[in-house]
Design goal:
This protein has about 475 residues and is an alpha+beta fold. It has 10 helices and 8 strands. A hairpin with a 6-residue loop joins strand 2 and strand 3.
């Protein structure tokens, strides 16, 4: 039933993907994708996730196999033999030169009663390994989610940057037309018109660059989503505002305490320590005696087996003895007729039952058990170091993420102040330029400074938003806008 459910689920998922991708030629171009849709689609179709799901399924099969290994074994066997020349007749256990055909049938069972709790500890270890594999899947899913959020924000940034560039082109066009009229009216020299046209060409180039950056950002996101092409792909434009994040008021130590409960890589590392401890118990179990019970049922058939069919009286014949009076002693003689013993009768006559217990006490095995115990203890020590290394790496990442978020916030605030100053300077320069009190070079300089600062503010804004999302991730908060 379970494989059938998985087949049905995979089939329906495939149908859904096909409908999404190919309905009306290009389904994913029909609508703009939200962040939640992008993350869900990436997690559903990412190959690394699917590979780790397969690894987890294999670990689950190991749990089932180790559970079943605690049950008794039951095996049946059958064999037919053809013997020619001098051989032992299985029916009489004597040598014979006749051709003999024989069948052997048996049913055997064996169960382990005690083996130093190795079976139980192996089952517990496989369960822990399965739990660790599930945490590994969660770790990969988290990484993919963060990558998708970063790529999604990059698309939003590129779209806003393109809007700024388009606005600058429009403004430069209007300025070029205004200067052209003033040149025609004789209030400005032709050099100012050349400067205005140069500025328009520069803004158009910036717009083309922004368009290319948007195409590249969309391509990066669609590749993360495993989509076949970026043509027609677009994302929703949510109202992305600067978050008043509570995590910014938390210290790295506080965030780390939250991450210990939320991050799957820490859970996986701790589970693997417990698994390594079970490995030590399994190795130590080899020091203990082994007690098992067994039983068997068997029978056999031989073509040489005969049975008495009848006895016929053949008369009296001299026995070779004489009486005291000299008379010959006569003895009755009989002819015995044998026939092949039927197959079913032989199986019934040769039916055998056996059972018993077996005790094995390890005394010396080349110090293999001692070596295995030492190896298991080293694996445990290594697992503890790996868990500590994971915790250290997470704490260092949180420290770096917290520092980056604070720096991004400061950069955003400073860029905002800088933008306000450049906007005021541009308004002042524009008024002076329109009044003919300044040359086009000063006006273009003010315009370029404003454009550069607006782009820097966009970069600072989305960089800060992503840094906050990283802190939210470590705190266990959902990755949403």
């Amino acid at each position: 039933i379970l494989p059938m459910r998985r087949i049905l689920k995979n089939y329906l998922s495939g149908v859904a993907v096909a409908v999404m991708l190919f309905t009306n030629g290009n389904a994913y171009g029909q609508k703009a994708w939200s962040l939640q849709e992008c993350v869900a689609y990436a997690l559903e179709n990412n190959i690394s996730v699917k590979q780790n799901e397969i690894s987890s399924s294999l670990a689950e099969l190991s749990v089932q196999q180790n559970r079943f290994s605690m049950l008794p074994t039951l095996n049946a066997s059958a064999g037919r033999n053809w013997n020619f020349g001098r051989t032992i007749d299985p029916n009489t256990n004597t040598f014979t030169t006749q051709q003999v055909e024989s069948d052997n049938l048996s049913l055997n069972s064996n169960v382990t009663l005690f083996n130093g709790f190795q079976l139980q500890n192996t089952l517990k270890q496989s369960r822990l390994d399965y739990m660790a594999s599930k945490s590994d899947i969660d770790k990969i899913r988290n990484d993919i989610s963060l990558n998708v959020v970063s790529a999604y924000l990059q698309v939003l940034y590129a779209k806003e940057q393109l809007n700024v560039a388009a606005g600058r082109v429009k403004q430069a066009t209007e300025n070029r037309d205004r200067v052209n009229r003033m040149v025609d009216a004789g209030t400005m020299v032709r050099g100012n018109l050349l400067d205005a046209e140069s500025q328009l060409a520069s803004e158009e180039l910036s717009k083309i660059t922004a368009e290319n950056q948007l195409v590249t950002a969309k391509l990066t996101l669609t590749q993360l989503l495993q989509l076949p092409t970026a043509d027609g792909f677009d994302v929703q434009d949510p109202a992305v505002s600067i978050p008043e994040a509570q995590v910014m008021s938390m210290t790295p130590a506080q965030l780390y305490e939250l991450s210990l409960k939320a991050l799957p890589e820490i859970k996986a590392a701790e589970i693997r320590v417990n698994s390594a401890e079970k490995g030590v118990s399994i190795a130590r179990g080899s020091y203990m005696p082994r007690l098992s019970a067994f039983g068997s049922l068997s029978s056999f058939y031989s073509s040489s087996s005969k049975r008495l069919k009848s006895v016929d009286f053949a008369g009296f014949n001299p026995s070779g003895d004489v009486t005291s009076g000299g008379d010959t002693v006569l003895s009755p003689t009989f002819n015995t007729i044998l026939e092949s013993n039927p197959y079913g009768d032989q199986l019934d006559e040769n039916y055998n039952k056996a059972f018993g217990i077996s005790l094995s006490i390890p005394i010396f095995n080349g110090l293999s058990t001692r070596t295995n115990v030492k190896r298991a203890r080293l694996n445990l020590e290594n697992a503890k170091y790996a868990a500590q290394l994971t915790r250290n790496q997470v704490y260092q990442s949180i420290q770096q993420a917290h520092t980056d978020a604070l720096a991004a916030r400061k950069r955003y605030d400073a860029t905002q102040r800088s933008l306000a100053a450049f906007e005021e300077a541009f308004v002042y320069a524009e008024k002076r330029f329109n009044a003919g009190l300044t040359n086009s070079l000063e006006f273009l300089t003010a315009s370029n400074n404003l454009t550069r600062t607006r782009v820097e503010l966009l970069q600072a804004k989305y960089d800060y938003i992503f840094r906050v999302k990283v802190l939210d991730f470590y705190a266990g908060n959902p990755l949403t806008f």
